[in-house]
Amino acid sequence: MPQSDDNTPAAREAAAGVPKPRSEEGSPLIRFDKVVKRYGDNTVLDHLDFSVQPGQRVSLIGPSGSGKTTILRLLMTLEHVTDGVIWVNGDPLSHEYKGTDLVKAGEQHQREVRKKIGMVFQQFNLFPNMTVRRNITESPIHTLGVSRDEADQRAAELLDMVGLKERIDAHPTQLSGGQQQRVAIARALAMRPEILLLDEVTSALDPELVAGVLDVLREIARTTDITMLSVTHEMQFAKDVSHRVLMFDKGKIVEEGPPDQIFGAPAEDRTREFLHAVLEG
Amino acid sequence: MDWGFIGDNFPALIEGLQLTILATAVGYVVALVLGLLVAIARRSAPRPVAWTVHWIMEFIRCTPLLVQLFFLFYVLPGFGISLGPLAAGIIGLGLHYAAYTAEVYRSGIEGIPKGQWEAGRALSISPGRMWTAVILPQAIRRVIPALGNYLIAMFKDTPLLFAITVPEMLFKANELAGTNFKYLEMISTVGVLFIIVSVLSAVVIRFLERRYAAV
Fold first, then answer.
1. CATH number at residue B80
2. Which residues in chain B have their CB less than 8 angstroms from residue A130's CB?
3. Which of A31, A186, A222, A279 could form a disulfide with A158 if both were Cys (CB 3.0 to 4.6 A apart)?
4. 3-state SS of B125-142?
5. Cβ B169 vs Cβ B16: under 8 Å
6. What pLDDT, on a 0 to 100 scale, did the predictor assign at position A278?
7. pLDDT tens, B74-99?
8. Which part of the chain is the ABC transporter domain (chain A) (predicted)?
9. Which residue range(s) make up the domain with B185?
10. C-beta of residue A83 within 8 angstroms of C-beta of residue A36
């Protein structure tokens, strides 16, 4: 690799021969570049390429084991790519520059890029030893350095938005699953992420609690321009909020397009089979 | 049974008991703190450190406390490290029981669902903050009963300090009994005092359990 004294990211990329990601719509916020993820002999993601524009809401659908959740876990840096590079806002997420070389990212780099990304989990993962308020304010105060007053106020606003203003002093164990998940959404948003990852957020809920959580997410979709990647089995929700739907099977994107197309007139047999199984089954 | 003899020598036994309780209390604090550090190191420290710590603790658990006490009190001075009897006793109890409390903490830490760590990463919470604010408060609550059992076990091990000349309760009792051959009186009283303190400790631990153990 040629050595350069110029240390700007653009210069480093030029020197490294890595072009800035481009598309007709402007530069994407997220770009997967030939991403491979293997667990032993099991290939979960197979040279996956796709990008997401800022503000876009994307639903990831497909049979279980097709690699959808792995995409979110890679973005959240809970897992590491086997091969390929993930770019967020033009910066490598899974890698960092060492001179002009892209090397596997260290913990420090990951902690920085991770701050732009929030995630809501299937099992909520609230901290049971803290009140709802502290669940939401813990990281803004101790990671971002927000003042306690400001964090408290923001927590109150977010809880109001998810309809749980009066439960601010409750402990997670005193809440229903649906309520816990709404707190988890508020907790993720309190970090003001640019990207919100939703990993089957209603799959662990009793059926009657699903609607409340989805309504909150619809409201967030309607009132903010946060970029959203959502792995979901709620097809109506995917139809309502998404700009784009990606259909996965066996670690590859089988088909993608606007929800009208995917749900109305899918081009691929695999998509039709899957939707038939989910909607009729 | 010579009740008068017990009455006359009771204050001396209580003096010994105070030393027993002191050794237990300080030793227990050492065991709690050291065990916690060991448990965290075994999970978070670089591989060689974690591995070394693991084998030291394994070694301690595989050798008798009495041998360790003798080592601290009679062998170390040969290497220029002279400890008083009480200091050697407290260090010995603390080290020995740290090997056990570390295992207790470990089970508590491993019982925390993976999702807690993942949520911490998703929120960019630093590892240090994650330990102190999220993991340990949950893990320690889970292991209060097990930690409490080791407090009582340690208390009952303090007579071993007799062997390194700490004038704890059994030491006193033996000394007093030896002069008049009143072993029945003295040793029985020691037993009764141990029962009383153990039962009281158990009650306190039960209270702490009920107060904190429920998450």
1. 1.10.3720.10
2. 133-134
3. A186
4. CCHHHHHHHHHHHHHHHH
5. yes
6. 86
7. 999 999 999 999 999 999 999 999 99
8. 30-275
9. 3-213
10. yes
